[in-house]
Amino acid sequence: MDENKEIAEKEELKETEEKKSESTENSKGDKKSGKKEKLIRDALDIIESTFITVFIIVMTFTYILHPVNIVGRSMVPTLNKNVDTSVPTEEAITDKVFMTTVYFDIDYGDILVINKDKNYLLNENGEPYVPEGIPSLNECIIKRVIAVGGQTVDIRDGQVIVDGKVLDEPYIAPGSTTDGLGGFDAQYPITIPEGYYFVMGDNRNHSTDSRAASVGLIKKDQIYGKAIIKYAPLSEFDFLTDSYKG
Q1: Distance of alpha carbon 197 from alpha carbon 211, whole angstroms
Q2: pLDDT by residue (tens digit) across 110-164?
Q3: Which helix (H) or strand (E) holds 27?
Q4: pLDDT band at residue 36, thresholds of 50, 70 and 90?
Q5: Residue 73 to residue 76: CA distance in whole angstroms
Q6: SS (H, E, C) 89-156
Q7: In what side-by-side order are the strands of the sheet with 190-191?
Q8: How many CA atoms lie within 13 A of 3 on its CB side?
Q9: Predicted local confidence at residue 87, as pLDDT
């Protein structure tokens, strides 16, 4: 009986040890499996974060911010004040701005990037029309809003008068004088029709803008967007949204 009892105890001990060994192996397997699952989750999280980041960047630069190189000196000193005029325009290192196509309204002082494919003048009834025989500038331009639809503009004695008040223009180039360029000289003061804008460059003596018949008024659908940030050169980084305040 004692011998049978001893054999049974040995078998029971062996069975217990096998169960412990099996449990240990399962535990090790579970840990390995858990580490593997964690690595997979971490990798998926990184991929997801990267995808979201790339998506946001692409959407931002597709629909919100567009880089624009500034050509010419019509917006000096706000833009291109240090451009080298001794080299051809296409070789000059120019200022660069971010333009946004997402905005709610257009106001005095806004700097617009414009597709000047048509030039709108005003007939004797103050209605806009595209003149025959006077070709449009037909290029992309950047100018500052001086008046919006419903406002009255007058240029007299080198001053810009909007709704009867002389504008304080701290943004124009030193030594500039604001004269008419033929577009509306015989009609001032003029009332800007709704949906149109009167724009000028800050470098008044070197700017072809709404004063000229080749540019005229800007129609809303000719606006590419608003220039909001000058990001290059980096040393001149600036927000353009309040540049009209001086």
Answers
A1: 12
A2: 999 999 999 999 999 999 999 999 999 999 999 999 999 999 999 999 999 999 9
A3: helix 2-59
A4: confident
A5: 5
A6: HHHCCCCEEEEECCCCCCCCCCEEEEEECCCEEECCCCCEECCCCCCCCCEEEEEEEEEECCCEEEEE
A7: 165-166, 159-162, 152-156, 190-191
A8: 0
A9: 75
